[in-house]
Amino acid sequence: MVSTSSTSGRRWSSLSRPLTLVGLALGPLAVLGVFFVLPVSAMLARGFVVDGSLDVGGVLDVLARPRVHRVLWFTLWSAAAGTVMSLALGLPAAYALYRLDLPLRRPLRALLLVPFALPTVVVGVAFRRLLADSGPLGFLGLDGSAIAIVLGLTFFNAAVVIRAVGTAWEGLDPRPAEAAAALGASPWQVLRTVTLPALKPALVSATSVVFLFCATSFGVVLTLGGLRYSSVETEIYLLTNNLLDLRAAAALSVLQILVVVVLLVVAQRLRATPDPTQERTPPRPRRARRGDVAALVATGLLLVLVLAPMTSLLLGSLRVGDGWGLAAYRALATTGASPGGAEVLAVPVTDALLTSLRTAVDATWMSLLVGLLVAVVVTRHSRGRVERRVRSGLDAVFMLPLGVSAVTVGFGFLIALDEPPLALRDSPLLVPIAQALVALPLVVRTIAPVLGGVDDRQRQAAASLGASPLRAVLTVDLPVVWKPLLAAAGFAFAVSLGEFGATSFLARDDHPTLPVVIYRLLGHPGELNYAMALAASVVLAATTAVVVLAVERLRVPSAGAF
Asked: TM spans, by residue (predicted)?
């Protein structure tokens, strides 16, 4: 007969691990609560609370506005079109670059992954330069069109598909597909019945993240859509920054958060299917065959989509007036000039670049510190349903900044962090903290898969041999996770360097970041100001490209995969 004390001991043991789990997560949860939940809640309260009382009816009236319907419809269909285009070009490119033995395969792979970390405002400027009436493709009449926005979204997000699906495709065991082909299945049947089901977790992950990125893209829609097109993200910016209609902004923010939560839950359930065909050692790539022509053509089209706007951007930065030269780059040491002779910027563009670099460094170490702890919490082996649900819930909570409007977070910072004990409005750490929140989901998704792949029995063996918890981490986890840590740092740095949504609210005039300066230069007339914006975009793109290429050389399979 089992004693009462032993039964109570087992019950306490079953609860102690989830409690320990929550205890380890208290630090990251506190950071998320202060710098995400509090600002977002403050922003929403401004819209829902009128004269001290809750006014839900007013918010529902906002959602009934015809303009809000147009904004929601444009956001949904443009995000869906951008996702479909990203998959249509990204999947063949993932196959070609990860399964075929092509010349210059790795440089091409790195080149097509660069757009993932490019600042959205740079992508917008590059496409405007390419499609403008005076640009190389101006004859197409696509400048300021919805097609231009979808192309910009595809340029930015196809890299997510290539990375997430390509790394999974590279590790697939080829024997099930070969067996199906030997039994008479056509290539299409093999793809539909064997390959795609094996890639389901990666496909679901990539599709959900790409849709979120497309739906919450700020810089691309703002620079390419102008006043004609507006997504939920840019509409929130317009309502808060220009019209001060906080009720309407709050209504759109709530709707966006609900959609993000539902999408994350659905994606997590769908990709929970285990993939039994994955191997530790990827099979050797094979030579291209006649049946691979379609994949190679799609890869070529994607390469053109990536190179054309960036080449146009570079050429535009070298042309001022009727000549060619480096005048625009030399002018980066100035503050620009309006037609009346007044200065456009408070500081030179070069100062803004230094501010961006310093801010990105701070945002990187902040996101790494919190992200590593989150990754440890969500990847430790779960014992029992309660603990598994707690870990799953924590994982979903820390993914929320991925899809919540950065504009909402930025404006919420101004509202919630303006009074003691959190009077941080004038703090130089405010912008890095906001950028760290944006980079946090990426850091977690880069580190967590690697930590989750470490066999927990190795840690138990180290502990049984007398190793302290710190020694076990240094001997078991660190050798496996140091490359992903470097990769996460690189991606966080690149993403922070180009963050524009929250930073557009928080950056001070005397300490702007480079994306903010680029947008201000574009808003002032003058040929030199425009050329300076192009030159600054080239500098920003080159900096992020160098970081991404360095990360790619680490060859971390999970980097950038969600």
From this structure: 71-98, 110-127, 147-166, 202-226, 246-267, 293-315, 363-382, 394-417, 429-451, 485-508, 528-551
